[in-house]
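If you are new to this repository, start here. Below is one unmodified record pulled from the training split, so you can see the exact layout before writing a loader.
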Amino acid sequence: MKRYFWGAAITAIFLVFPFWVAAVDYLAEADKIFDQGGLENYKKSIDLYVKAVEQAPDDYEANWKCARAYREYADEVKKKEVEGWEDICAQYGKSGMQYAQKAIELKPERPDGHYYYGLNVGIYSDGVSILTALSEGLKGKTQQSFEKTYEINKMYKEGGPMLSLGRFWAVLPWPLRDRKKSLAYYREYQETQYFATNIEARLFLAELLIQIGGDENKAEAKEYLEKGLKSDDPYFRNWATALQAKLK
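And here is the target side for that same chain:
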């Protein structure tokens, strides 16, 4: 009798909650593929994350991770200069913003949605240009998203909020840009354990120091270019080479 009861109960759970079960399966599989990294794996994970969201639209994890996958795929496409990368960045950045916004609405007290909203605006801007993104009113929301992530946990994603705010204030066109704020956030990030091995962060700071100018800043920037110049990744190597040329 007990065996029949539990068997019937389990069957009833699967009949009543089939969408929830499917969403969990999609999410777990997507996580597994995403964690392998690389262009193709990011693309495959997106398809699974989207299915997870379709099955459970109010699943917080599915939404923010979907936003993350969209951003990472577009970022890889940009770095590898895949044909039509600007259009891909625009399309995937916009989709990523939508999933991140949903995550923000579901759990505004958590950092994930805020952080990946800002990053997706960044990749969207790479595709359509910063001026276009600004004309669409995205400056305020991006700033708010990164500042909220910083407020919740500035060490999230290995200090990502500090680095993102530094980059945000550095790349804005005049008169919106604020290099003093940018440098302050970079200096804060520089104090973390992550700066020494983060080539992108070192190039961000080097680029800003070169823009600020002065012999001391250029000398410091030169030091940060070394890892980029020796990188196996052509994206970082080419970027560092271009910055090095500005020191001469």
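Two things worth knowing about this chain: The domain at 8-157 is CATH 1.25.40.10 (Serine Threonine Protein Phosphatase 5, Tetratricopeptide repeat). Residues 1-21 have pLDDT under 50 and may be disordered.
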